[in-house]
Amino acid sequence: MNTARPLIRLVLWAVMLPSLFLVKTLANDSNKHLSIAVGWSKPPYVIALNDTGYEIELARNVFKRMGYSITPVYVPYGRTLSMLKNTKVDAALTLSGNTATQSIHLTHSYIQYQNVAVSLQSSNFKINRPNDLAQHSVASFQTATQILGKAYADAIKKAPLYVELPDQRRQVGMLLNGSISVLVMDVNIFNHLHSALESIEDRQSVNIHNIFPPTHYHVGFLNVELKEQFNQALSDFQASQAYDTLVKKYHIFQEALSTH
């Protein structure tokens, strides 16, 4: 009886099985990847040039705990929701609470922006509520009228000039060069861009008018199971030392981080 042939087959299977298992594992790993719609650069939250920023790194850490890698897809902020609706991406960051539908599932609040009105100190404006903006030229971010409430939307209808721009660096420049008299944006974004545009020696003094409540943002998914996984992973990450380290790294104001 020739036992050599069965023995050869056994040896071949012993060699091939680990390779087949590795190929299958790599294939499964390659599927654990998500594309995420993200609004254009808004440092310190999103720095598209090198895929960093507080919000990007927060999301990446949470998705990593879920077992996923991510690829940010940068679009004007006003297009993130449509990218998700049209299934161009697997998820979208920085969605407001009123964007939930039967097909778009929102996570718990994962980040909070503190929008403020900013004016040059030399202007000596008294701005104590959104209605006071009606007499000023104002620039803000895309979809601000949908996010900042009815009082704000009504006020800027009466403003002599009102623009919403995707480029927030340009918005800050418009305030500093006098093209507009009031800027509405997140205080952390303003502080970052103001420091980048003007040196300490030449930096113009500004007044920060805290006339808006904090704005809570969510991640939107088409897959409800991913939403639930994200909520759990977010809770775990926020309880970790890595989360505290991330907050300190980007100098995010602690009072802008509470969630509901």
From TrEMBL:
Domain of life of the organism encoding this protein: Bacteria
All residue ranges annotated as the Solute-binding protein family 3/N-terminal domain in the record: 33-256
Family, per entry: Belongs to the bacterial solute-binding protein 3 family.
InterPro entries the record matches: Solute-binding_3/MltF_N
One Pfam family this sequence matches: SBP_bac_3
Keyword terms of this UniProt record: Signal
Name of protein: Solute-binding protein family 3/N-terminal domain-containing protein
Organism (species): Paraglaciecola mesophila
Protein's UniProt keywords contain Disulfide bond: no
